[in-house]
Amino acid sequence: MHKAIFITVRTNSTRLPQKALLKIEGLTTIEHLIRRVKKSQLAEVIVLCTTTGKEDDILCKIAEQENIKWFRGSAPDKLERWRGAAEKFHIDFFVTADGDDLFCEPELIDLAFEQAEKKHPDFIKGDGVRGVDVPVGAFTYGIKVKALQKVCEIKDSDNTEMMWTYFEDTGLFECQKLENVPEEFKRPTIRMTLDYADDFRFFQTVIKTLGIDARLRDIIAYLDKHPEVVAINQYLQKEFRSNQKSKTTLILKESYGKFHTTK
Predict the structure, then answer these.
(1) What is the DSSP string of the chain?
(2) How far apart are CA 80 and CA 82, in angstroms?
(3) The pTM is what?
(4) Which of 53, 70, 62, 65 lies closest to 10 in space, CA to CA?
(5) From the CA atom positions of the chain, what is the Rg in Å?
(6) d(Cα 250, Cα 257) in Å, to the nearest integer?
(7) Within 10 Å of residue 88's Cβ, how many Cβ atoms?
(8) What is the pLDDT at residue 208?
(9) pLDDT at 246
(10) Whether 52 contacts 72, CB under 8 Å
(11) What fold, for 3-256?
(12) What is the mean pLDDT of each run of 10 residues along the chain (263 residues)?
């Protein structure tokens, strides 16, 4: 099984403009993420998946400087972008690392790869709402490429930002929660994703205190002692979830029963 990490990122963000290029301790946020996921012991390739827009040329340059692969595809359709990257690099299974998630944890990524090898799921989830209650941003999804290809065949929309619904709500795929997660990682009240200015303040505070190489267990131990740091952006979680809910649509081709639902 050829395993990859797909870093999904573009510069055209609205709530926090060009957040992928904001700097903390001399590195852009996307460089922090790239260097973090490189610590995975089981990933065979890391691919930065961005768009064909000229504004994202800089992201491809960063990927080359960091000695990882890159792929350019559809801006709105993450699923097609991933499918193109998977086919180009001959990937069988990949773990997603959103460009927003600076503390995406290599230990959890490797747990997903191990689970994929042993149990052969189509889809592995780790999100706190319907997953295993890890901090938002610590782990997102693991996806079998054959399942991704099937989803791309049956969907009837290119608006796939909230793509999980095509795997979880169609009844066509074997979906599993991430297994063997250390108990100390199960902290859904901690927010580790970059959407707003106070999210950036949170990452600045933690990285400046612990350095760029801190493991998730070290970050959580620090946050347990400093609830005021958790509070910097914790209040944003309700708005974040509401925004996700409003964007969640499931639209299938007529041959599969076309419908739309909002979660």
Answers:
(1) --EEEEEE--S--SSSTTGGG-EETTEEHHHHHHHHHTT-SS-SEEEEEEESSGGGHHHHHHHHHTT-EEEEE-SS-HHHHHHHHHHHHT-SEEEEEETT-TT--HHHHHHHHHHHHHH--SEEE--TTTS--PPBTT--EEEEHHHHHHHHHHB--S--TTTHHHHHSSS-S-EEEPPS--GGG--TT-B---SSHHHHHHHHHHHHHH-TT--HHHHHHHHHH-HHHHHHHHTTHHHHHHHHHHH----B-GGG-------
(2) 5
(3) 0.93
(4) 53
(5) 17
(6) 11
(7) 12
(8) 97
(9) 66
(10) yes
(11) Spore Coat Polysaccharide Biosynthesis Protein SpsA; Chain A (3.90.550)
(12) 97 90 97 98 98 97 98 95 98 97 97 98 78 84 97 91 89 94 92 96 98 95 97 89 71 67 39
Domains in the chain: boundaries: 3-256
Q: What residue type is 110 in one-letter code?
A: D
Kindly state the tokens that stand for 59.
């992201």
Measured CA to CA, the distance from residue 123 to residue 176 in angstroms comes to 6
65 contacts: CB under 8 Å, gap ≥ 6: none
